[in-house]
Design a protein that fits this description.
Strand content: under 5%
Radius of gyration: 24 Å
Number of domains: 1
Shape: elongated
Helix content: over 70%
Order of helices and strands: HHHHHHH
Structural class: mainly alpha
Largest sheet: none
Length: about 180
């Protein structure tokens, strides 16, 4: 028996299930973050190159100090890479749950990544990077192209007309009804 002070729980309307294309876009964004992290790990795995760069920039440091600086840089880089994968995963999951702000933010991040990837490709292809002493490995370029393609496909999937209604329907389901002046 229920007491008069307790009221039955109001049932929440069911959340819409994301379309398959939105779910695919979510996993593509997560894949893009993992590929980006792998790219970063490949760059960090060349410890000798890191030490050469440090030695060229700060020739007064001893070998122990160079080793400590390289190790610190690698650990800090790993923490940043893991944080970025977590942020991308969080945003992708929010987008898949129908949050339009997450879709917009992922679009901005992916657009910036694609733009910078094209700038890098143009700089390397034109010889501009070499003129300034920047060395970009073919492996780094390959990772960049793969990430650009994944991000581009994920953005296109999020904005297809067949799935745009999903973001509107989630908004209407999750919106609270307006409260009127008499409080009812």
């Amino acid at each position: 028996m229920t007491s008069p002070m307790t009221s039955p729980k109001k049932s929440k309307p069911p959340k819409p299930v994301p379309p398959k294309l939105i779910d695919l876009a979510r996993w593509l964004f997560v894949l893009s973050a993992v590929v980006g992290m792998t790219r970063f790990l490949v760059q960090l795995s060349d410890r000798e190159m890191l030490i050469r760069e440090l030695r060229a920039r700060q020739p007064e440091l001893g070998q122990d100090e160079l080793d400590a600086a390289a190790t610190g840089g690698i650990v800090f880089g790993l923490l940043i890479a893991a944080a970025l994968v977590l942020v991308y995963t969080l945003l992708a999951n929010r987008m898949a749950s129908g949050r339009n702000w997450a879709r917009v933010l992922l679009t901005v991040l992916a657009g910036a990544g694609i733009f910078l990837g094209f700038v890098r490709l143009i700089a390397v292809g034109s010889g501009f990077a070499t003129a300034f002493g920047l060395v970009v490995s073919p492996v780094d370029l390959a990772f960049g192209v793969v990430t650009m393609v994944i991000d581009g496909v994920a953005v296109v999937l999020m904005y297809l007309p067949s799935v745009s209604g999903y973001f509107r329907s989630v908004r209407s389901v999750s919106a609270k009804p307006p409260q009127v002046a008499n409080g009812l």
